[in-house]
């Protein structure tokens, strides 16, 4: 079954050329050997070897016969193909010979072709001459047509005139186009001069068209035929422009006319010229209000005419209602800016803001039911930009500020004059003194804030801030007026006649203002009063209280000058007289509201306690014996008790009274053992931390029995235990200045300590 040497030599070149074939053959042989060894491995299987050999021989013979048949059919096909190629090559050679012969024939006929070219040119010229002959009658009648067109225009037969005008233009354009193709520019100039009348006719027609468009709002109401005619002519011209622009080979003179754009421009100029280029009107409130009202009425009316009557007369693509709306909008924007360049008063500025921000978009104007839904207000830009609105609001605030200042100043002048009248100030239903000042001021401020709220929240906030600033400044001027009134009263206590009553009215007015300020805030949930304004209110209250206490002091001082004295020690009615003065003032103080009454009562009590202590410490005396100290302590107890009971009866509780300092001072004087003074003084200084070493030294002098050593111990202990003023402490001793050492006042004749 192995290969012979010749087979190996024959296969070697193929194997070298196809190494994959050699590998495949080896694999096949290996597979066959493996199969044969597996089949004939057993001896009993060798009996079928001859049968297997015959079967394989038959199969090989069948395969070889099929291969021979296949190769034979392939060879027959290749033979047929070669025969067809041979036949095709012969036909190609024949065609090449025919083409060569045709080429020589064409070369021989070149002269004849040149003659045909000349004949073609003559033919074209003949055709052109025939065309010229056909249009000669039209060319000769051009000027007659011009005259007829002019007559039609004078008779407002615009459509007929435009038809003939288009025919003449078409004739001219055809001639110019032919000349343009032949490059005969000189001939073009001649044609243009011959048709020069076309320009005048176009201008005449255009003038009538624009006059009609300019009167379109009137015409569509009275007789829309002329307006529709104008629109049809404009549409024709627009189509001619579009077709010429699309061809882009030759553009006749005067093209494109652009009459549609001119239509928009004339319509827009008509709108803006009729309403917004009028002579300068009165820029103040009444004149401006009438002007804006007229604009509002006319614009709504004209837009309704456009929507209902003009829109059906023009193609939908014109968007004539949107164009007119945008034109009015732009014209109004510019017009308002021109008005704002004037020096408008506050009423004028308010009218402009209200009109631009509220009326313009409301159902009274562009949101009118007759204009909806075709007019879309939301698609328009704001009539006034945010920057212009802010600028106008600031101008308005400045105008209002000047007006508020003027009114407040006038109110203050009236109030100041009221202080010097012979009558008491008016009272409310509870008998409290008051004047009209708080009501006037708050009404003025509140009205301006409420009016501003009709425009924007930002304007309301600006007016609110301005109102607080002006109120604060007004309170400052009111305080200055109080100071001036107090100075005049110091020169003559009879002027004003009802000085105390008017001061009490000022306090009530100030309280009313303080309670009303929070109501001015735009946000009802915010009731906080700015610190600077509250400070101004507090300064008014403090000044009026000070002037009232000065009056009380002037009446108390003559009595306090008698302290201490022998008459006082002997049990005179000095403190009783003081109580009468205090009670009189308390009755006057009852004409203010309770918080103010309690304040005046507390301040009066502090003043009385201060003056009483001042008299004791500044006009100090020295007790010569225990009996004298007892007499002094008894008088101090009676006076302090009487004064305390008075103020308690008026409604001031003991815990709020400063007269307790007199009781404490009395305890220091009544102390029997001077050695205990250091502890008592320390307790006194702890309770009244504003007491100084000088005050304590004066008290020790009044006792008259304190040695230098005890004095030194007391003052040393005070130095070792300095006291800080607690928060909310009302000073009593810090305002009492102790005089320099002088000869002490003695209770009776004898040698003084």
TrEMBL record:
GO terms for molecular function: SNARE binding. One of its GO terms (cellular component) is transport vesicle. One of its GO terms (biological process) is exocyst localization. Keywords: Cytoplasmic vesicle, Exocytosis. It is found in: Cytoplasmic vesicle, Secretory vesicle. Residues 1-25 are annotated as: Disordered. InterPro entries: EXOC3/Sec6 (IPR010326), EXOC3/Sec6_C (IPR042532). Interacts with EXOC2, EXOC4 and EXOC5; may be part of the exocyst. As part of the exocyst, may play a role in regulated exocytosis of insulin granules. Belongs to the SEC6 family. This is Exocyst complex component 3-like protein.
